[in-house]
Amino acid sequence: MHRSTYFFIALCSLLFALRADSARMNVLFIAIDDMNDWTTLFDKTNPIQTPNLERLAERGTFFARGYCNSPACNPSRASVLSGVRPSTSGVYNNSSNWNKAMPDVTILPQHFKNNGYRTYASGKIFHHHGTAFYRYEAFDEYVEFPTKQPDRPMPPEANLNGINQWTRPDGKKGDVSRNFDWGVYPPDEDFHIDNRTVDWAIDKIEKAEAPFFIATGIFRPHMPFYAPQAWYDQYPMQDLTMPKLNAEDLNDLPAEAEAMIHPPTRSFMSTFAAERTRDPKIFEKAVRGYQAASSFADYQVGRLIDALDQSGKSDNTIIVLWSDHGFHLSEKEHWEKFVLYEKATRIPYIVVAPGFKNGQVSYRPVTLIDLYPTLVELCGLPEPDHLEGESLIPLLKNPKAKKKPAIITYGKDNHAIRDERYRYIRYAGGDEELYDTENDPHEWANLANKPGSRRIMDELSKWMPESSANPIEATR
Question: Which domains does the chain have, with CATH numbers?
Answer without folding.
Answer: 26-408 (3.40.720.10)
